[in-house]
Structure prediction request, 543 residues.
Amino acid sequence: MLEPSKSTDSSGMDEFGYAQTLDRSIGKFASFAAGVSYISILTGVFQLFYFGFSMAGPAYAWSWPIVFVGQLMVALCFAELAGRYPVAGSVYNWAKRLTSGTFSWLAGWLLLISSMVALGAVALALQITLPQLWSGFQIIGDGTGTYDFALNGVLLASIMIGISTLINAFGVKLMTRINSIGVFVELIAAVLLILALGFHVVRGPEVFFDTAGFGEGHDLGFFGVFLIGAMASGYVMYGFDTASSLGEETKDPKRTAPKAILRAVTASFLLGGLILLFGILAAPDLSDPKVGSADGGLQYIVLSVLGGPFGKAFLACIVVAVVVCTLAVHAAAIRMMFAMARDNNLPFSRQLSKVDPVRKTPTVAAIVIGVLAVIPLLVNVMQPAIFTIMSSISIVLIYLSYLLVTVPLLKKRLLGKWPGEDSDVGFSMGKWGLPVNILAVLWGGAMTLNLIWPRQEIYNSVPPFEWYLQWGGVLFVGAVTVGGALLYRTKLRHQTRVLAEHAAAAPGNSTPAPLEAPVGVHPGPVSAPAGAADAPSVLDAAR
Prediction:
């Protein structure tokens, strides 16, 4: 029996039963940048500050460290998995080794759908920034009409998604080069913005301990509105698994990806938290209604405090952040679609898993993701509350997909089936694994419930007030989950195999095994990866 280090595939992909078909060119900073750009503090914080502030006032900022602690628990679990299985479609491939075929497929399916919805939601952030940078970007109407905001946002987002599709289809080298430059600009801008806002502080930190009348009349008082406002932070701090989803294209991924995941979420917490802190402390007038409005928010505070060319320069940096965030979300969605398709786990799998022989990137998947991402935008085009609706639905699906990894991982630990450390593991929590995993599951469940709760403030905040709009999030998530499960159980599970063109070569042979191999089963006698013996195969699940 051959050791993985002596296998026929020097990239190590045959350890997981796959051939190396993607371009392994991503270095340490590019891997870190992928996670940072997906989280994208300048995009998320500036896009959703107005929402959190309008719900709970300055004290909503306390949700930022709370969300960070919860998401750090999840990130630590993911880092441990990335240290063992740095494979495209990270959440899907991790779940394959932890749970049954149905639940692992659902993990990938929910994250794939959420990524496409999130792609549109991120691109919509241009509408909050570009018209404040220059009024000429308000192409449709003058911004005062009922639907001017939403219509123009859909137009700008569609153009951005088109650009992202072209860049991602061209190859990972171009995407990561642009992404790394953009993240560098974003990090420098974030630091300079923190210093600039800190220099203009006009009030003390006591403002964060004053509910300022928010929550009066609400059934749960301030706690009720704080739960709603906390969603603005929950909408931002996710997507750190992207560093591992690009693992097949990363050098030394078992060590690079875990560090990138943890550094991305920590850096985003520190910089984003300081921007929130000094932004609120430096705002000239917190009672100004523009601070809590979609066409004002943190952008309005920055322009009011810094003014003129400095304020505009920072808004331009926010646009850069939105662009690279769009690229990262698109790239992650492509890898998820590719990962599921090469296992023949999607309709039209052969086409969707096709890798361009020159650019070594899933070009067809890039185009399909771009087209599908525009559809939710068009469906919501006449919905003025499009930002919160799109964001809420996409994040609910992401938290659910994360739970489909952390819950079976916890089950493995409790049953004593999670393997210990070995020389081929890039990151391990050791004895801290169990308590961290428990906290990750509790956090994920609580946050999912908070996000999907059919509040009128989220899903139907403006007239007409209809029950089906308020329950739209629950209905959509339910339809995607149940519909996906039925699709898998009735059709896809019977065809699940690693497609021949993606199967690892048999030992001693330079070509892939001629027959399609069951997912998770190597076609040759190469030793299984750590923990694989405990993971049920798709065939076992089907039986």
The chain has a mean pLDDT of 87. The domain at 30-503 is CATH 1.20.1740.10 (Amino acid/polyamine transporter I). The chain has one domain: 30-503.
